[in-house]
Amino acid sequence: MKKLTIIACVDQVGLIGLDGQIPWHNPEDLAHFKKYTLGKTLIMGSKTFYSLPSPLEDRVNVVISSDVDKFDAHIESLIAEYAVTGKQLPVICLAGSLDEFFAADLSSFGDELVCIGGGAMYSSLIPYATNMVVTRVNSSVKITEKSNVVYFPPIDNSWKLVKKEDLKSSIGTNVGEIMYLESD
Question: What is the pTM of this model?
């Protein structure tokens, strides 16, 4: 099996999403995410895909969704948008389910698959993942009764911390930590 990595950014209580968005803006984590995922195949749920400002360049974007009509409409709008800019649309693939994706020939998708979310994808793939890269940011978010929140699933004892590094801002302030974990 290929290496399957889960990459996520969480706050101190494991929050990953608030009202369909990442609840903070952390340029340092975004730079780390880009550096780690460039050139790799990314697996994501449809909510994550539609929340992105654009498909992630220099990566294969695999979207897991059974709503083909919504996906096709979104792709048509992206094609039109990219035609105006003259830029090339990144590679985007649709799989109706994780089972469908993993039943396909994955030989052209590189040595490492990276799950980038959301919550349902993380929960579904943690049992099959070989690695996790989890950034814990120093952020506090106001949550109300009406907030739609998504948390990262609990990490059990089968995961071993193999490396930890501080996440520092451009002026040297510690803004979080990056944990690299492997499954037993």
Answer: 0.93
Residues 37-48 pLDDT 10s: 999 999 999 999
Instruction: Evaluate whether 12 touches 151 at the Cβ level (below 8 Å).
Output: no
Q: If you average pLDDT over every residue of the chain, what do you get?
A: 94
Residues pairing with 44 in the sheet: 63, 117
Q: Which two tokens stand for residue 142?
A: 């106001």
Q: Return the HEC string of the chain.
A: CCEEEEEEEECCCCEEEECCECCCCCHHHHHHHHHHHCCCEEEEEHHHHHHCCCCCCCCEEEEECCCHHHHHHHHHHHHHHHHHHCCCCCCEEEECCHHHHHHCCCHHHCCEEEEEECHHHHHHHHHHCCEEEEEEECCCCCCCCCCCEEECCCCCCCEEEEEEEEEECCCCCEEEEEEEEEEC
